[in-house]
Amino acid sequence: MTDFSKDAKIFKAFCDTKRLTILDYLKSGEKCACVLIEKMNIGQSALSYHMKILCDSGIVTARQDGKWTHYSLSKSGSEYASKRLLELTTPNSENQSNCCK
């Protein structure tokens, strides 16, 4: 049986409008948490919650600089997420069931 726990973390990262907004901001490059807090008009604890999910998925990486954390998109994480979405949604004709025929 396939373990989909990594896939679940990836797709959880995409199922919230705030996280999608964060990803959109990060497309233009690394952002400090202070910038994301200001742009999104959310508190530090709310940002931390969303960033933990994004970082756990592998789509975003974090870098500590003094008291602030800087976030950026992970090229390898994004590529892996794209690959898995394609793999999971591409029909496999070899495994088509002949049930009820």
Automatic annotation (TrEMBL):
Protein name per Swiss-Prot or TrEMBL: Helix-turn-helix transcriptional regulator
Keywords from the UniProt entry: DNA-binding, Transcription, Transcription regulation
CDD domains for the chain: HTH_ARSR
Species of the source: Blautia hansenii (Ruminococcus hansenii)
InterPro entries tied to this protein: ArsR-like_HTH, HTH_ArsR_DNA-bd_dom, HTH_MetalResp_TranReg, WH-like_DNA-bd_sf, WH_DNA-bd_sf
Transcription listed as a keyword: yes
Keyword Cytoplasm: no
Domain HTH arsR-type stretches: 1-93
Alphabetical list of SMART domains matching this protein: HTH_ARSR (SM00418)
